[in-house]
Amino acid sequence: MDICKRCKNSYERESYEYLWDHDEVDHKENNKKPCKNHHKDNETCVEEILHAILLAQRKAGDDDHCKHSYEVYEEGRKRKKNTIPFILYCGNCKPFKATGVTSFSSYSKQKKFACISSFIFKIKDLDEKCVTLELLIIKSDQKCENNEPKTPCNQIDGKKVDDLVKTGIFINIDLSCLCAITCLPAVYL
Question: Which InterPro entries match (predicted)?
């Protein structure tokens, strides 16, 4: 087995084990892709995946708080992954980049605005026509001024997966504007 084939198979297992809760065998027998012809009430492929991610994140967040607190303080133990970050693509096949504004306190204790752009998102809510997303950035990018990413690869290439952080900036997107999604490795946020 060559390395590319081994990596591809490993990636598929890791990616789909938390996304697809429907019968994949049925798709193989019918020679269909998971997104095609498997939608309820005109649900799109992207919407189906976003819905699966939202359910997985909610399930991961349903911890017993006492147990969770104990695990966080237990030495040598990793926190449970609760977020599946992703990159979206618009109808023109280009990656979707969102920009939002937040505020921060500067060294002079004055509140200032900070404009943040990102290609990486966390789903917060989903309804029939819109999705609410939170912009995510890499921790090291918070410290750099004018560090606006030009492409998704430019934003994440060579960065640590665990350095992904929430921004507190939320946007609402019309689902009809989206045509593709790429999921990134699950993280704790």
Answer: Spore_coat_protein_Z/Y (IPR019593)
